[in-house]
Amino acid sequence: MAYTITIKLIVFLYLTLISETTRNVNSISSLDELSSSPINQVGICSLLIETQGYTCEEHKVTTKDGYILSMQRIPTGQGGKKSDKPPVLLQHGVLMDGGTWVLNSPDESLGFILADNGFDVWIANTRGTNYSRGHTSLNPSDPAYWEWSWDELVAFDLPASIQFVHDQTGQNMHYVGHSLGTLIAFSAFSKDQTLDMLRSAVLLSPIAYLGQISSTLARAGADAFLGEALYWLGLHEFAPRGKAVVDLLSVICKMPGNDCSDLMTSFTGQNCCVNSSMTDKFLEHEPQSTAAKNMIHLAQMIRTGTITMYDYGNVNDNEKHYGQSTPPVYDMESIPKDFPMYLGYGGADELADVQDVNTLLKSVKDHDPDKLVVQYQEDYAHADFVFAVNAKKVVYDPVMAFLNLN
User: Fold this and answer.
1) Among residues 149, 179, 289, 363, which one is catalytic?
2) What is the DSSP pairing of strand 173-178 with strand 198-204?
3) Where is the active site (predicted)?
């Protein structure tokens, strides 16, 4: 009982800070005022990629529902050699942005490693993140701007990003997703969307089911309906990157015996190989905003153990949106059995829990065995797949071998 109360108090404190931050963000009256924050005066190219000696291009992608997304391209390796292999689109997870793929050193970051190995690298950023806060008619101070969940990432962000890379290069591409980046891919694939422009998909820390999630803080938040509480209070932006939260995380990470990997453990599981020296860099760029409705949708998955579209909570609203009383299911068994996929998961991951991944694997048990590669890394947790110091040897080298075959 005391342990449960402690967990809920931690989550309550966390969301109190988020609420304060969100009120500050929602008081901003214009995009110009929003962009006055120093981190928004630059982009991922100038901040994280060009500083490492790589050529980088900034692009803008407009979705069919009006969101303007940033996208980065690394067209050459560090030595300036132009790519001679197909494009690869990298898609980050929730509360992160495309910087995920280039935060580590060039010999440890997948974005740089792919570029140095001849791939044409494109980095996607979902709506609401630092450099994807534009819209054709809304700004982030409007509640309507945040009226979306990962359903809209499936329906709009993902196809717009894939179409853009295809239009720019004239080639089909490989897709690499982490965490939420796998969820939106699985969901799109189950509806046979975007596959005509893809060569293969690499899905790290794969999430299709969350019913067996073992992260105590994630489950406590879902069971307490905390995302719903924010939404009902009118706080439609879930903004963990406010000053109060960053300062708190910085203090905790720098206390004796703590580092960023220890802090992440409460959410992700015990990451084996995330270097504590990443703490300051991680906190400088992450975590980032998403929609409260998106967090509600993920919480619904935790509570129900299913993968469906957003549940509006009553028959009338579901009928209005879907023409049926319950939200439609994303059927994992409908993923085309001949589409090449690489799934990498970890034994210590408490978000993409082993039991939930096993449920996913049962759903794709009839997949062509020549088109499905499954990697299990016993000591890896959620963040290891993008931040581990040994990820190149453990994950990225096998991934590149897979890409080269497809």
Assistant:
1) 179
2) parallel
3) 179, 349, 382
